[in-house]
Amino acid sequence: MDVPLRVLLIVTGLTGIHSITTVSRVSVKAGGSISIPCLYDSRYVNHVKYLCKGSTWRHCTFAVRTDQSNSKKFSIADDKTQRTFTVTVNDLRDKDTDHYWCAVEIDSWGDVGEDFHLSVTRGTPSLTVDHQEITGFKGHHITINCYYSNRGEMKWCRLGRSCVTRSSGSIDGTGVTINASGPNVFTVTMSGLKTESSGWYQCVKGDLQMPVHVTVTVQSATSAVTDSSNTLSPTPEPLNLTSVFAEATPTTVQGGQHSDSFALTDIIIALSVLFFTVMVTLFIWFMLKRHKQTKSASSAMPEAEEEVTYSDVKHTRKTSSQRSTEKDVDVTYSSVVSMRQLNVETVEANDENVTYSTLAKH
């Protein structure tokens, strides 16, 4: 390498001018994490990238490198297509408040880098968003809420490119509107999304930035039908077990083990509901059948009635000779028997329950 080029690389490494573009200052809540994008020049595509921690470039120490394994605390990923490497700091603590450097390794004579300041706070960060990752469909729109507590101008910028500072504008042909929708929050809407709109953007308020990564995909027919059905709010259909089991079928999502466990839980719940329903149905059927049998037996047995059987009564008039000896007519009555019929079969089959009397002449 000739001397002029070596001198140029050293100077570039000291200044970082036109080599790497990143944020300048971010505020993050303790216990959380932060991802920082570092945009680099096309000539550094195949170079090693790294994150360096320290207040000065000369005295910073390596945190993570692309040619080494990631740690739980620091990780790095290089997207050579977008010419952006992303560093992530996890489990943030007060001691993590410091200057950091997005750097590219050139040679032993000097690397290139650009610094940013990371501030970790126990309270609410001065500038934050709901999510650093957001996905939208081509031709549709997305909305990002930027929450702030500091002063300064509101902006929405694409990393390394232009910014929208007014209420409306465009970035790379994508429409952008900024609306101060409430106290300490402004809303950014990107409409007419293109696949080229994918990349890193920034909420900017004063001297603070919060990076947001936007991914634009082409909407599939399945997702379009789902989106349309959600919009139309169809009339609910009756619950059927087929749909319950269909919903319990495992789906492919990030973290397959969690998906399988959720699906198994859904199946167990569905089977429990089905078992309970069958048991209740059988119990009700059994009680109705028993009630019906009891009612039939009751209707076949007439109420017991007290029946009184009288014997025939005949008057026998005595002759004149007899009347001379007796003044009155003697009448003999048979005994009256009161009998309770226990059931219908006794009445119909037995004649022995009828008592006949006999009148004798006296």
Give the distance, in angstroms, between the N- and C-terminal Cα atoms. 165 Å
Structural domain tally: 4
What's the tally of helices? 6
The name of the CATH architecture of the largest domain is Sandwich
Précis, in short:
Helices cover about 25% and strands about 35% of the residues.
Overview of this protein structure:
This protein folds into four domains: 1-125, Immunoglobulins (Immunoglobulin-like, Sandwich), CATH 2.60.40.10; 127-229, Immunoglobulin-like (Sandwich); 238-278, no CATH class; 306-349, no CATH class. Helix content is 25%, strand content 35%. It contains six helices and 21 strands. The protein is elongated, with a radius of gyration of 49 Å. The relative contact order is 0.09. Mean pLDDT is 76; it is low at 1-17, 228-260, 303-311, 319-333, 336-355 and 358-362.
